[in-house]
C-alpha cells in the first residue's frame, strides 16, 4: 500500500501545488488522480517516486517512508509511463524495453527475451522489435512505454496521462489493454488523467483534486457518480451522471423473453403462432445458428407474420452480451433499436432473449433499490529530457546523446 499522509508541496516560488493531501492507495488496484489542469496531479505522482520532493507530510510504501531507501532503489520499484512514451529514439523497440533489465545487470539475451515477452503481453507484434520509435504509431509507442515500465516487474506503476496524446479510438483500445494487463499482473497503479471518463473507466478508486491540490473526494467510481461530495465534484463529473452510473450495474438479472424469437427456417404456422403469442411488436428473426438477422417489422406483422422476408427486416442494432455487459449497454441497445427492444446474445453472438425498454427501466429501479436508493452511495524537449533523466540514469544518458546529435 502507498500511504500519502498529509502531504504538501510548496514550490520555491511559493506555489502550493498540493495541500495536506491524504490518500491510501491499495495494493493491486488502479487509483486514478483526476482534476482540472494545475490541481497538483503530476506533482503528487512525482512525489511518490521522489522526482519531486515533498515539503510537508510523508509518503509510506508498504509502511516504510519512501526516504528510507536510496532514491534509485525506490525508482526501480516503480515503473513510470509518461505522455508521448518518452522512448529513446536511437534505440530499437526491443532495446528500449530491455533498458532497465540491462541496467540491473541482466545479460543482453535474457533482457531481450524479457522484452519480447513483454511486447507480446502489451499487444505489440514481434515484427516491430527491430524498428525505431519513429517507425511506430503513437499508440504503439505508448504500448512500448508500458512494456518498458513493466520490464523489471516493479510492484508499482506510475502513469502520467499516458494515453492523452493518442486519438480517441486508440485511446479506448489502450485503456482496455491496460485493464487486461492489470487483470493478469495485479500491479499497484497510480494513474493521472484530466479526463473523468477515463478515470471512471479505469479506476478502482478515484481521487478528485481541486485547484490548490486539495482532495475533493476519494471514492470508487460508482460511489462518485451516485454521491458526489459537493458541487465541484458534481460539476466535474458532468452531465449524464445517472446514465453513466448504469455501467456499474450488471445485465445478469435482466428479465429476457424468447417468445418473439424465431428461426429463419420456421414454417408459416410457427410464425403465425409466435406472432400471436409474443409480447413484442415484431418477431426477431435468427439464422439457423441462432444469430440475429433483424426484426420482421410492420409489413410482416400486417400479413399476420406469415411472410418472412429477410430483405424487409428492420435492423436489430447492436446486441448486448447478457451478463457481461451492463444495464447501460442494454439500455443503449434498446434506445437505438428501431423496435425499442434490445437483443441479448451469448459470448458466441447467439440470441439468448430480447427485452423491452420498460423491462430495462424496471431492472434499473431494482438495481438502485438494491444499492440503497438512487441518490446514495507537451512539454518542451528540454523539459521532457529533464523528466526522463530524473527517472533513470539510462534515460539521462540517452537524452544527452540525442541532444548532442541534434
Ligand atoms: N517547478 C514548479 N515551480 C512552481 N510551480 C510549479 C512547478 N511545477 C508545477 N507548478 C505549479 O503547481 C501546480 C500544480 O501543477 P501540476 O503539474 O502538479 O498540476 P496538474 O494537475 O498535473 O496539471 P495538468 O493537468 O495541467 O498537467 C500548478 O499551479 C503549477 O503551475
- What is CATH's topology name of the largest domain? Rossmann fold
Number of helices: 17
Strand order of the largest sheet: 6-7-8-3-9-10
Instruction: Give a list of the ligands.
Output: adenosine-5'-triphosphate
* CATH homolog superfamily of the largest domain: P-loop containing nucleotide triphosphate hydrolases
CATH architecture tag of the largest domain = 3-Layer(aba) Sandwich
Please give the domain count.
2
CATH class assignment of the largest domain: Alpha Beta
Spans of at least 5 consecutive residues with low confidence: 373-406
What's the main sheet like? 6 strands, mixed
Structural class: alpha/beta
How many strands? 16
Mean pLDDT: 86
Q: Rg to the nearest angstrom?
A: 26 Å
- Based on Cα principal axes, name the global outline: globular
Domain ABC transporter: 2-237
InterPro entries: AAA+_ATPase, ABC_transporter-like_ATP-bd, ABC_transporter-like_CS, CBS_dom_sf, P-loop_NTPase
GO molecular function: ABC-type quaternary ammonium compound transporting activity; ATP binding; ATP hydrolysis activity
Protein name: ABC-type quaternary amine transporter
Notable traits:
2 domains; binds adenosine-5'-triphosphate; Rossmann fold; disordered C terminus; alpha/beta; 406 residues; CBS-domain; 4-stranded antiparallel β-sheet; 16 strands; 6-stranded mixed β-sheet
